[in-house]
Each structure stands twice: as structure tokens, then as C-alpha cells.
User: Fold this.
Amino acid sequence: MQTERDPCEPGVVLRGMLAVLLACVACGLCWLLWSAPLAPGLGDAVRAASAQSGIANPVTAVLLDFRGYDTLLEIAVMTSTLVGVWALGPAPKLHERPPSPVLLGLDSALIPFAAVICGYLLWVGATRAGGAFQAGSVLAATGVLFILSGRRPRLGLPDAPMRWGVVLGLATFLVVALAVMGDGRQFLEYPPGSTKTLILVIEAAATVSIAVILAGLFIGGRPDREP
Assistant:
């Protein structure tokens, strides 16, 4: 039988004080954002530098050229996250059941089309919205559909380990970043005229790794064939 709480209890008073405090903080942040002067921004500087690098899309230029360190660390964090999940143990066994005909039909229609979308997003990322993260997400969704339908891809290779795909993006990023260090250039400072090509190589490798990592996180553990 439930009893009514005394509104003067310490717990009730403490929660009320915290609610008032959080409301005051939220109102203060809203006031600061509303009253802050508009900054000129870096749009003009980014567009001018993008024209020199050959990357027409300013988002791609920022992510992989102007602040490549951040993107490199983001891929490293994603890789280490999957490694941490694998360290917890093998993936749980899925209860095999006959897949829905609707799901099988959806797979047959979407999975081949997803490969085309992935390639388009990867290639178009240099000039408009797209890139490795978007393309990798599409591939990962394809892998999730495979898992949900109970299908298993047949690669035709003996024990092809997922860890090769997991580390491909980070390894390619590091190899390119170190290989360009010559003639006085710094880490991740691309040579003039080769920025677009090197970024496309990095994004292609990152697409595979992002797809494998996201699908691996959905699986929730180390695959059967991984040591």
C-alpha cells in the first residue's frame, strides 16, 4: 500500500532545489546564447583555402585537411571502442529462426542498391554532402540487414577476419600522414596537388572500417572466428 510522502522530507526538498538550480542554469545559458554577438565566422577563410586544396566541399576540407588530427582521433576512438566490446567476450548466439519474407524481399532490393549509394556518397564527398562516415553508415546498415535476416555472406576466403577491416581506416590514415612528411612538411600536411587524391584514399579505407565497426557494435561481441 503506497503512502503519501511528506513534502518536507529531505529527499523531496533536495530534488526541488536541484530542479530550480538546473532551471536557472538553463535560463542563463539561453540568455547568453541569445545576447551573444554574432561572430563573423571562418566561412570565407575555409572557402578560400578549399579552392587551393582542390576540395570543393568545405566540410570535407575541414574534416580531412584543416583539422585532420581530430578526424584521425575520431577513427582511433571508434576502433578502440570495438576492441573494448570484443574484449568483453564472444558475440551472443543468435536464435536462428525463419526470416520474414518481407525482410528477405527488402534485403534483395536494398542491399545491391546500398552498394551504389555507398560509392556515390564516397565519391561525391569532395564536392557536396557525403564522405566516409555517411558511406560507412550505409554499408553498416546493409550488414545489419544481413544479420537480421539470418543470412551470412560467403566471401569465398578462408576465415577472413573482421579485424583487418577494423584497422584498415586507422592504418591507412597513419600511413598517409607519415608518408607525406618530407621536404619540410609536417604530419598530415599534404603535398600540393595531391590533397584530393590522398583524402579519397583515406576516405575509401575509412568507409570500410566505419562499416565494419558499426556492424560489429550491433553484433555486440567478438565474432566466432576471431581469436
Q: What stands out?
A: Helices lie at 10-35, 43-53, 58-66, 68-87, 101-124, 132-148, 162-179, 195-219.
